[in-house]
């Protein structure tokens, strides 16, 4: 069963963001830094809670780089998720099953196209026996901030 308190806790996340271009040849290679206060999984990779710099490396790859402790990089394959108003702020959307969190969609600030993750083997195993996931969002501010 899903607990309303865990959904509300995740909805009240404290974020710290920074955005910057990675180079003149990569106009859409915007990087956003965000605090994710819970462990999560994407593409069968377990990612611990922490501060990450997220950037689109190519149309089908996202990079998560730990900016605090390990400096570890997680490279994840993604699929297009559709369009949104490019003036909308960015957000990360997670599927929640009890205490398990799976990254579902990434919407970078100021970009119309989102990216999404297919269900991993671990998520499919977790999903068995459950009726439906709860969705949790982590909002990303609209404007870039230096970092």
Write a concise keyword list for the protein shown above.
five-stranded antiparallel β-sheet; 46% strand; 10% helix; 147 residues; mainly beta; 2 helices; globular; disordered N terminus
Topology:
Blueprint: H1 4-11, E1 19-21, E2 30-36, E3 40-42, E4 45-47, E5 50-58, E6 61-66, E7 73-77, E8 79-83, E9 90-97, E10 100-107, E11 113-116, H2 121-127, E12 134-140
Antiparallel strand pairs: 1-2, 2-5, 3-4, 5-6, 6-7, 8-11, 9-10, 9-12, 10-11
Protein described:
The chain has helices spanning 4-11, 121-127, and strands at residues 19-21, 30-36, 40-42, 45-47, 50-58, 61-66, 73-77, 79-83, 90-97, 100-107, 113-116, 134-140. The chain has one domain (4-140). Strand 9 and strand 10 form a beta hairpin. It has 147 residues and is mostly beta strands. It has a five-stranded antiparallel sheet with strand order 1-2-5-6-7, with no helix packed on it. Strands 8-11-10-9-12 form a five-stranded antiparallel sheet. It has a two-stranded antiparallel sheet with strand order 3-4. It contains two helices and twelve strands.
Brief account:
It is built from two helices and twelve strands; from the N terminus they run αβββββββββββαβ. It has 147 residues and is mainly beta.
Percent of residues in helices comes to 10-25%
Compute the number of helices.
Answer: 2
How do the strands of the widest beta sheet line up side by side?
1-2-5-6-7
What does the average pLDDT come to?
74
Number of DSSP E strands: 12
Overall form: globular
Derived structural class: mainly beta
Describe the sheet with the most strands. 5 strands, antiparallel
Order of helix and strand elements from N to C terminus: HEEEEEEEEEEEHE
* Fraction of residues in β-strands: over 45%
Total discrete domains: 1
Which ranges are low-confidence, i.e. pLDDT below 50, for 5 or more consecutive residues? 1-28
What is the CA-atom radius of gyration, in angstroms?
15 Å
């Amino acid at each position: 069963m899903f607990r309303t308190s865990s959904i509300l806790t995740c909805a009240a996340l404290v974020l710290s963001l920074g955005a910057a271009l990675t180079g003149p040849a990569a106009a859409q290679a915007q990087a956003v830094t965000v605090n994710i206060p819970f462990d999560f999984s994407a593409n069968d990779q377990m990612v611990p809670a922490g501060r990450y710099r997220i950037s689109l490396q190519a149309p089908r790859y996202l990079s998560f780089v730990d900016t605090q402790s390990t400096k570890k990089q997680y490279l994840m394959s993604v699929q297009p998720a559709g369009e949104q108003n490019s003036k909308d702020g960015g957000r990360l959307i997670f599927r929640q099953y009890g205490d398990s969190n799976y990254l579902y969609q990434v919407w970078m600030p100021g970009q119309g196209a989102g990216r999404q993750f297919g269900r991993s083997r671990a998520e499919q195993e977790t999903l068995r026996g459950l009726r439906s996931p709860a969705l949790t969002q982590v909002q990303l501010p609209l404007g870039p901030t230096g970092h």
